[in-house]
């Protein structure tokens, strides 16, 4: 067993009832024999409450919806990749009053895609449903994988609106990623409005949601014979990348 000092970690976002982070890291602390390590949820209804957490004794933080972009204004340093993406999901304390932001979502997604495709050829084009923080990280990762992508938004912030998703657009994009919270517990009856009848066996449908395991979005894909995968593997992989960052700065 380790004689490690007290080290605190946590998650900021809202709501946090869906999050896997607390049980994941608590189990990790136990497996690795890390005494005095703890992980807490910090559900914040407003972004202006983020400094309240940053000013407490916390070594590292995960960041989830809806604060992956807005958190940037409250930190004094940011990794160049996270800056390029425009979103942060991992924070590490670098001094008494200083924090640095990283993005491990893109790494988790990239690694998850590589494992999923295996020896099969990856699709050449992808549609990302959503334009939030995780969608930005996914777009960065797709570019790193050599996959062209376009984003879809109901608010006109993407390359396409849902109303413009024709059968041809679906047939031209064999990888479709749900990067929205639609379908997450407790509203499991919801799904992005795309022409699911145009999905084929050549399509790959990925959902960043992992609870439930099969969202309505993925269920539609399964019915059409598509390859499907939820976001649990991505979450595990991004969490391990975050842990590596915390260990580097914490020297434990």
How would you describe this structure to a colleague?
The two termini are 13 Å apart. The chain contains eight helices and eleven strands. Helix 7 links the parallel strand 10 (204-207) and strand 11. It is an alpha/beta fold and 252 residues long. It is globular, with a radius of gyration of 19 Å.
Q: How confident is the prediction overall: mean pLDDT? A: 95
Distance, first to last CA:
13 Å
As a percent range, the share of strand residues is: 15-25%
* Largest sheet data: 6 strands, mixed
Report the total helices: 8
Secondary-structure topology with pairs:
Blueprint: E1 7-13, H1 21-31, E2 37-43, H2 50-54, E3 60-63, E4 77-78, H3 80-85, E5 90-95, E6 98-102, H4 105-117, E7 125-129, H5 133-144, E8 148-152, H6 167-172, E9 175-178, E10 204-207, H7 216-223, E11 227-229, H8 232-250
Parallel strand pairs: 1-2, 1-3, 4-6, 7-8, 7-9, 9-10, 10-11
Antiparallel strand pairs: 3-5, 5-6
Helix pairs in contact: 4-5, 4-8
């Amino acid at each position: 067993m380790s004689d490690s000092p007290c080290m605190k970690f946590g998650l900021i976002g809202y709501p946090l009832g869906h999050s896997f982070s607390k049980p994941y890291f608590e189990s990790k602390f136990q497996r690795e024999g890390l005494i005095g390590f703890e992980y807490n949820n910090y559900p914040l209804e407003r972004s202006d409450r983020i400094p309240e957490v940053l000013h407490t004794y916390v070594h590292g933080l995960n960041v989830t919806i809806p604060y992956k972009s807005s958190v940037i204004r409250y930190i004094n340093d940011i990794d160049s990749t996270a800056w390029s993406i425009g979103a942060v999901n991992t924070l590490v304390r670098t001094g008494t009053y200083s924090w640095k932001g990283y993005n491990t979502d893109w790494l988790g997604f990239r690694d998850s895609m590589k494992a999923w495709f295996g020896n099969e050829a990856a699709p050449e084009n992808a549609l990302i449903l959503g334009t939030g923080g995780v969608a930005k990280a996914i777009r960065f990762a797709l570019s790193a994988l050599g996959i062209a992508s376009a984003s879809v938004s109901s608010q006109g912030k993407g390359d396409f609106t849902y109303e413009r998703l024709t059968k041809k657009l679906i047939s031209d994009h064999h990888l479709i990623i749900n990067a929205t919270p639609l379908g997450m517990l407790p509203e499991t009856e919801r799904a992005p409005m795309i022409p699911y009848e145009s999905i084929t066996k050549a399509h790959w449908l990925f959902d960043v949601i992992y609870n439930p395991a099969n969202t309505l979005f993925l269920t539609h894909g399964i019915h059409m014979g598509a390859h499907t995968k939820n976001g649990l593997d991505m979450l595990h992989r991004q969490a391990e990348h975050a842990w590596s960052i915390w260990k580097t700065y914490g020297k434990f």
